[in-house]
């Protein structure tokens, strides 16, 4: 496919070609290194949907390109290339001139067919599948090919192997490809065509299966990416318009009906719909979303129609951030992976030395060729990333997003867990705990109902908690006049000719001149218990107080107990809450230590002190003030409802509002690292035994190749399978997308008169 064109002064195609629409609107180098470049791109507004496989084939067919990885969700394309055959400027020109028609819409099939024809014509090196087919045919016809043609036939099929080995030797030095090429060359030169052909076949089969397993693990991780909406319906100036998804801005009113992919993160303004959120939370049961509810980009409307206020768009959405995390996970190696790679490379010269020693002692070329068949590199280099990626897929499916293999590895090392309190150990949702009445004509239920009658018009967490508490009890409504909302203070109205106010102490004392001196003892008691007082005034006097408190998550204690069984030595709590409430919670949960009345910078300081003492800390938090601690810990875990900054600075993000997922993440990390360690021992043990058998003449080159490649494939399949198993000890019921654990039930309300202790 000729794509090279002469660019104009701006680097775009010349006018003679300008009539053909181009694929990319913009194409910028995001990162480059020796033999590798990663581009960020945008597509023209209104263009047809990109066909990723077609684009990959077009790029892969260019001279010098050795590898392509496209991530449509992140609008990124990474290219590996041979610096002797092409360059970054040349690749930039080629990519800039790709016509839109070849990689969008139905033309993808034509591009694939063209690529196949090009490969059939011999313009590119045979693919792995082609190598496998050629080597299989050669092996089957070994005894049927006339002797004068036997060696040339073997040589022809082995040329790609020799070519790769020479390139690797010149660029990287000795590696497993060089050893494999030497083994085939020795068998061919010594006239053992059966051994040479069988070795070629086993190498091709092993490479094909290894590549398939590695790609499968990549594909599993990519399944965490979410569908993009191409066009979006918005309401502007009272009219409904269909625009390109890239044109949506914060503040737009987005309209989504049945079958639509929600293109933004936002809040429902009106309407109601059942939304399939499995792609984001793993929840298989569609959730009802109506006014005031949050919705996420990448989720799908199953029934209904809603209007959404766009709060996050484009790269700011949750699904876009997940796409970036997945891309990072695919590209960045963990410490364990780097160690395995270095060990594999270091063992290559030793194997070559053993093969040479075997020949010097036995003067038997077959033994030397057999030794060269059994290297550690393939299994060592591939099994670790396969285990990581399959485990990360399982975690993502079950509500935990690891932002890379390194995060998983560090979580397995964590021996100390430090939790923020509010929104982490607790639900972060206020519930009414006490109602105090200070007027003999009003009992506590009357106070609650009166407050709820005016608060039901106010969209605020405190107001919501009061209204819900009233609904669970008498739910009696007091008729009132129009409600006034006083920003940052409270609400006011008129009931039976008397002014009623509900809000903060400052509001009632400073704005309404209501004296609270007679009730200081009750107020101080509630505050000492870590409760938030809401004050109700009627006719210029204090009618009562409603106390609210954040409730403990239903499964917090169970989760902490499970963490201890997973090897966690210490569990601590950091909170800005009062000392009394913090001590009570720490005692109830059996925590090893706690720190109360902290400022955000105090949390980071305490983590630093713990780290200096040798602890490997996993910090779990949800607020913006937790960001310094999340970033400074050995590994940071952000809760699902956490602030954007907290989720951005964390290493692990929970996709469900369930603290049990923290223990699930630790279980997955522990299991994965244990499996990697087991695989390492199997690799070393199996290949050492194979090497010993080859060096002593017990195994022929054919037998060595079969055993080596077979054991490598078995270990890779075990790594893939192990990562896909159910999370050990998880409280999450059922299969993928099973319903998460229920939220904590509301605490009972204590209705008390002044002077009586609240329960």
From TrEMBL:
The lineage of its organism: Bacteria, Pseudomonadati, Pseudomonadota, Betaproteobacteria, Burkholderiales. It catalyses: Zn(2+)(in) + ATP + H2O = Zn(2+)(out) + ADP + phosphate + H(+). This is P-type Zn(2+) transporter. Residues 728-759 are annotated as: Disordered. Residues 230-326 form the P-type ATPase A domain. Residues 739-748 have a biased composition (Low complexity). CDD domains: P-type_ATPase_HM. It is found in: Cell membrane; Membrane. Its main location: membrane. One of its GO terms (molecular function) is cadmium ion transmembrane transporter activity. GO terms for cellular component: plasma membrane. Keywords: ATP-binding, Cell membrane, Hydrolase, Membrane, Metal-binding, Nucleotide-binding, Translocase, Transmembrane, Transmembrane helix. Belongs to the cation transport ATPase (P-type) (TC 3.A.3) family. Type IB subfamily. Transmembrane segments: none annotated. Its EC number is 7.2.2.12. It comes from the Bacteria.
């Amino acid at each position: 496919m000729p794509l090279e064109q002469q660019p104009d002064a701006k680097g775009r195609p010349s006018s003679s070609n300008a009539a053909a629409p181009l694929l990319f609107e913009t194409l910028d180098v995001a990162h480059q290194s020796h033999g590798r470049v990663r581009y960020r791109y945008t597509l023209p507004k209104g263009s047809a949907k990109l066909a990723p496989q077609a684009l990959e084939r077009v790029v892969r067919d260019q001279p010098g390109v050795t590898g392509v990885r496209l991530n449509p969700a992140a609008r990124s394309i990474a290219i590996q290339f041979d610096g002797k055959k092409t360059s970054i400027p040349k690749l930039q020109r080629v990519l800039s001139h790709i016509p839109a028609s070849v990689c969008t819409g139905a033309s993808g099939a034509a591009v694939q067919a063209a690529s196949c024809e090009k490969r059939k014509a011999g313009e590119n090196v045979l693919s792995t599948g082609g190598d496998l087919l050629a080597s299989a045919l050669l092996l089957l016809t070994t005894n049927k090919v006339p002797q004068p043609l036997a060696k040339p036939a073997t040589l022809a099929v082995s040329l790609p192997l020799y070519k790769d080995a020479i390139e690797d030797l010149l660029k990287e030095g000795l590696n497993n490809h060089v050893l494999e090429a030497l083994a085939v060359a020795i068998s061919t030169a010594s006239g053992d065509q059966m051994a040479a052909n069988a070795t070629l076949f086993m190498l091709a089969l092993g490479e094909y299966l290894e590549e398939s397993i590695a790609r499968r693990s990549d594909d599993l991780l990519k399944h965490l990416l979410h569908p993009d909406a191409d066009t979006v319906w918005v309401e502007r100036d009272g009219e409904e318009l269909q625009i390109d998804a890239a044109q949506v801005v914060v503040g737009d009113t987005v309209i989504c009906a049945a079958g639509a992919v929600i293109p933004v993160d936002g809040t429902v303004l009106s309407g109601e719909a059942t939304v399939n959120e499995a792609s984001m939370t793993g929840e298989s049961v569609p959730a009802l979303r109506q006014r005031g509810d949050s919705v996420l980009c990448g989720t799908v409307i199953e029934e209904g129609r809603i209007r959404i206020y766009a709060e996050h768009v484009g790269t700011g959405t949750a699904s876009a951030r997940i796409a970036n995390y997945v891309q990072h996970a695919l590209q960045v190696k963990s410490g364990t992976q780097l160690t395995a790679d270095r060990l594999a490379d270091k063992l290559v010269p030793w194997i070559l030395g053993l093969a040479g020693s075997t020949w010097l002692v036995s003067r038997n070329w077959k033994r030397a060729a057999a030794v060269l068949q059994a290297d550690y590199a393939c299994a060592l280099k591939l099994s670790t990333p396969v285990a990581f990626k399959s485990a990360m897929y399982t975690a993502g499916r079950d509500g935990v997003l690891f932002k890379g293999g390194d995060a998983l590895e560090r979580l397995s090392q964590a021996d100390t867990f430090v939790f923020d309190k509010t929104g982490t150990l607790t639900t972060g949702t206020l519930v009414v705990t006490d109602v105090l009445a200070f007027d003999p004509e009003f009992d506590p239920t009357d106070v609650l109902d009166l407050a709820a009658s005016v608060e039901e018009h106010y969209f605020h967490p405190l107001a919501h908690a009061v209204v819900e508490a009233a609904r669970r009890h008498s739910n009696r409504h007091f008729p009132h006049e129009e409600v006034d909302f006083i920003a940052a203070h409270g609400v006011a109205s008129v009931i039976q000719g008397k002014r009623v106010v509900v809000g903060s102490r400052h509001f009632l004392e400073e704005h309404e001149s209501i004296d609270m001196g007679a009730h200081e003892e009750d107020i101080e008691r509630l505050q000492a218990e870590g409760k938030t007082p809401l004050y109700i005034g009627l006719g210029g006097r204090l009618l009562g107080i409603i106390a609210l408190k954040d409730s403990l998550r239903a499964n917090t204690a169970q989760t902490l107990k499970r963490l201890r069984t997973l090897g966690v030595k210490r569990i601590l709590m950091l909170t800005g809450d009062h000392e009394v409430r913090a001590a009570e919670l720490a005692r109830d949960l059996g925590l090893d230590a706690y720190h109360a009345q902290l400022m955000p910078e105090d949390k980071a300081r305490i983590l630093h002190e713990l780290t200096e003492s040798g602890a490997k800390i996993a910090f779990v938090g949800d607020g913006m003030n937790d960001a310094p601690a999340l970033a400074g810990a050995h590994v940071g875990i952000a809760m699902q409802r956490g602030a954007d900054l907290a989720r951005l600075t964390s290493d692990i993000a929970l996709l469900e509002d369930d603290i049990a997922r923290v223990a699930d993440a630790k279980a997955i990390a522990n299991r994965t690292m244990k499996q990697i360690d087991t695989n390492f021992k199997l690799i070393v043990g199996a290949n050492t035994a194979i090497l010993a058998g080859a060096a002593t003449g017990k195994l022929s080159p054919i037998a060595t190749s079969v055993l080596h490649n077979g054991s490598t494939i078995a270990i890779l399949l075990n790594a893939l399978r192990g990562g896909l198993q159910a999370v050990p000890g998880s409280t999450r019921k059922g299969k993928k997308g099973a319903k998460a654990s229920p939220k904590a039930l509301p605490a009972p309300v204590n209705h008390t008169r002044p002077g009586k202790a609240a329960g």
